[in-house]
């Protein structure tokens, strides 16, 4: 890339514009070589968006909606802002629900952890979500999609979640944002 004249930032990442074009005509870059977290799913979405843009179609990546997962035991997963980051931007409401109170988690003997949803106190829009516990890597997807569509905690709370499932903990955390969890 350097031999072709592509520019790099101070951290050695290839610089691109909003459409993933480098400063050299015909050269595009995505994934681990550009700014942002080094996540395979980030690179995959950037690749799709870049090709869509090359074809003249609107493509986008909402970076604030990209989930981050740590495959430990219990798993850790998050999307969006932390509680502290959200507080810096204004008044928030937080809902938490422990896996200890979830029937499926109890049956699996995986009762450690919780689901936490951070929402804007005025609009109820979900700003971030954090899960520590069983299948956190799977459960975070619902909240990433919700954020992609600018959903509120109430939107999640009013959605039917199958019983008995771990996903009920997500619904209960959303209910807890409005102080209505079981």
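Q: What amino acid sequence fits the structure above?
A:
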């Amino acid at each position: 890339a350097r031999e072709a004249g592509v520019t790099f930032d101070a951290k050695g990442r290839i610089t691109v514009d909003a459409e993933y074009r480098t400063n050299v005509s015909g050269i595009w870059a995505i994934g681990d070589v550009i700014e942002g977290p080094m996540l395979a799913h980030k690179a995959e979405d950037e690749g799709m968006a870049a090709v869509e843009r090359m074809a003249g179609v609107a493509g986008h990546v909402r970076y604030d909606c990209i989930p981050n997962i740590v495959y430990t035991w219990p798993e850790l997963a998050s999307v969006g802002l932390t509680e502290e980051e959200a507080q810096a931007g204004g008044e928030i409401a937080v809902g938490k629900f422990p896996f200890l109170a979830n029937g499926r988690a109890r049956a699996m003997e995986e009762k450690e952890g919780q689901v936490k949803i951070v929402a804007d106190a005025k609009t109820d829009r979900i700003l971030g979500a954090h899960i520590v516990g069983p299948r956190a890597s799977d459960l975070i997807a619902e909240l990433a999609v919700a954020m992609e569509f600018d959903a509120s905690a109430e939107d999640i709370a009013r959605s039917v979640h199958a019983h008995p499932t771990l996903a009920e903990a997500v619904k209960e955390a959303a209910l807890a944002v409005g102080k209505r969890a079981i």
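Q: And what stands out in the fold?
A: The beta strands are 68-70, 75-80, 92-98, 114-120, 126-133.
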